[in-house]
Structure formats: structure tokens, C-alpha cells
Amino acid sequence: MGARTKARRRAVEILYEADIRGIEVGTIAEQRVADRPLGEGSYALRAATGVASLQPELDAELADCAEGWDLERMPVVDRNLLRLAAWELRSGIVPAAVVIDEAVELARQLSTDDSPRFVNGILARLAAIQAERAEEPQS
Fold first, then answer.
1. Is the distance from CB of 81 to CB of 43 less than 8 angstroms?
2. Angstrom distance (rounded) from CA 139 to CA 136
3. In 10 A of CB 55, how many CB atoms?
4. Burial of 108 by CB count in 10 Å (0-12 exposed, 13-18 middle, 19+ buried)?
5. pLDDT class for 38, splitting at 50, 70, 90?
6. Quick one: pLDDT at residue 34?
7. Three-state secondary structure call for residue 29
8. Rounded to an integer, what is the distance from CA 128 to the centroid of its chain?
């Protein structure tokens, strides 16, 4: 498992725990750093706090792509995997295909049998929407 993949998994763990416990992501991240150093500039920490800072916007984008699915009804792991991937897609740090592949693989490892396909479908829609927006002429 590559370093970035491990960092994504740790970010999902932080987001999952914050979601389940109803605690701020920053608080969980601080606890995690105390338990097992993440490193000041670690990708896991940057990604988790990045998701937390944009969560309402990311959730709105995901809700638009998850036709017929309320985010609160989704498995907690899936919801947080999708948030992380949406943040990565938005940031442009990693190519969309890599973001989607990594999220699908984490869904395969961490969630239900149906989750990889579900995560792939939502992220493919989100990536297509973002690509369309990027191609639109700016006024």
C-alpha cells in the first residue's frame, strides 16, 4: 500500500470517527496525532481538515449526484469516503481517475459489497460535472 493510499485510509478513519462520535474533525485529528503521529504536513491531516472545512459544500455536491440517496442514509464509511474523494476532486491534487480508483478500493476494503459500485457511480457523476464546469467559458 502506497503512502498516499495509507494517508487516505487514515483520513477516512478520522472523518468516520468524527461523524460517528459527533465530534469536530480537528479534535479527532489532534487525538490521532497524539496516539500515532501523522506529521505536521501529512496528507491525512490536510485531507481530513480540508474535508471538514468544505463539508457543507461537498455534501451538497454529493447529494446532487446521489440521485434518490440522502447522505444521512448512506453507510457512514461510504459517506466519508465520498467526502474525501469529492475534496480531492475539487482540489485537483490528484487526477480524477486516480481519486475514483482509490475511493473504490477503499470502499472494497472498508464497506459493504455494494459500496464499490455505489461510490464509483457517484464519483463518476461528480467528476463529469466538474469537468463540464471547467470547460465552460468564464464570463
1. no
2. 9
3. 17
4. middle
5. low
6. 67
7. helix
8. 17
Output helix, strand, coil percentages for the chain, rounded to the nearest 5.
80, 0, 20
What does CATH list as the number for 3-135? Answer: 1.10.940.10
| pTM assigned to the model | 0.91
Q: What's 67's DSSP letter?
A: T
- CA 27 → CA 40, 60, 61, 131, distances in Å? 15, 24, 25, 34
Look-up of cell digits 469516503 = 81
> 70: buried, middle or exposed (CB in 10 Å: 19+, 13-18, 0-12)?
exposed
Residues, the chain: 139
Boundaries of every domain in the chain: 3-135
- What is the 8-class DSSP label of residue 23? -
